[in-house]
Amino acid sequence: MPKIFISYRRSDSEDVAGRIYDRLVAHFGHDAIFKDVDDIPFGVDFRDYLNTSLDQCQVVLAVIGKSWLMATDASGRRRLDNPADWVRLELEESLRRPDVLVVPLLVSRASLPRVDELPESLRALPYRNGAQARPDPDFHKDMNRLIVGLEQYFQQRNQPTANPSSRRDRPPRAVNLQPKRPPAVPTFSFDVVTVDAQGNITERRQAEANYHSEDLGNGIKLDLVHIPGGEFLMGSPAGEKGRSDDEGPQHRVQVPEFWMGKFPVTQAQYQAVMGENSSRFSENGSNRPVESVSWHDAVAFCEKLSELTSRDYRLPTEAEWEYACRAGTTTPFYFGPTITTELANYRGTDLTYEGNTFPGNYGQGPKGDFRQQTTEVGSFPANAFGLYDMHGNVWEWCQDVWHSSYAGAPRDGSAWLEGGNQDLRLLRGGSWAFHPTFCRAACRFLLLPDGRLDSRGFRVVWSAARTYAS
């Protein structure tokens, strides 16, 4: 009989661990799952019972929530630094056993801890292929994937071998319990330009980035660029021209690595996945961004793409979007202190509306063209990460709900889904119809999630460590 040991910390993930236990019991049976010290008879030495239980287990699920790493005891000491901590003992013993498959199971939008954040005895854990159990409505989908992966592992493990007595000395076979990471990571080259305050190009250099190409059929590809993890200052400084109060307070955010669409989703890509295209600018529009799509349409595209590829595609979080847009810069635009219509598609002419004039230039930069429509993706220079059209062309939907400031915002790059105005969703990047101040890296925009306008589109991301909620 399969035996699965669920390791979790009560202060970190008691509720979701209970849900995981219930799903596994429903599939494998009660006798196949060990979850809690409540299962230990009174008076029995926990260490002896742990060793006996692990002798019978083939799989240990290490449930990791957002406070798992830094949970402290009554004296303020980090629990993982205590050699007698039960969770540490469970995982130390599991990692020592070559016949036990240890699977990190990420819950509550948690990320795997870094190697240097763990005690020496647990530093093999981040290298183990993991899984995730996201909140509803995706919990049962993730659990189905986990159960299928475990069943495959048990089937492989139970296959007869030429020398059965050697099984205990043989490492467990690998099994894919999370969305597939692109198997090959080719690179592409691109130009990055920098401008001065007047919009003159002062530097042009060649850069390189890793990418993965998703085959959508009929010769249509969707390219993703690898975005390295890092920390950045989110929001705009008080003196930035065009700044709104909702762009502050500035705060540092740590963003894990992820993959992001090289371009906004095109009409051809949307048609290939969804079987329809309601874009206004559809004439000769296959390589233009899809537009006139609501937030719900964008979510549906991500879900359908996930089904087709076995990878969890989703909309970017607002923090991921700004981090990816800036690509290490701190200026209003990734090109520098200003922008020109030679570098992006936006309204480069003045507009007077209700007595107010919205200038077609930003700062000391020049005025320019107003194309009055979208342009083909990739028509303008990329940023230092290799992403195109992050300024202008179409506004891009993000996961987050609208908050009028960053007070209390997450610092880990996750989507801000609690509080705020639950009736509104975030967009970033500006568009062909808007003036340059709206194209700044820090500029935020809001819309009802069912709104469909010809200046709204989206791009997708993939990241095994992130969760998604709709």
From TrEMBL:
Residues 154-182 are annotated as: Disordered. GO terms for molecular function: formylglycine-generating oxidase activity. Residues 1-147 form the TIR domain. One of its GO terms (biological process) is signal transduction. Residues 154-165 have a biased composition (Polar residues). Gene3D superfamilies: paralog of FGE (formylglycine-generating enzyme) (3.90.1580.10), Toll/interleukin-1 receptor homology (TIR) domain (3.40.50.10140). Pfam families: FGE-sulfatase, TIR_2. This is TIR domain-containing protein. It comes from Halomicronema hongdechloris C2206. The lineage of its organism: Bacteria, Bacillati, Cyanobacteriota, Cyanophyceae, Nodosilineales.
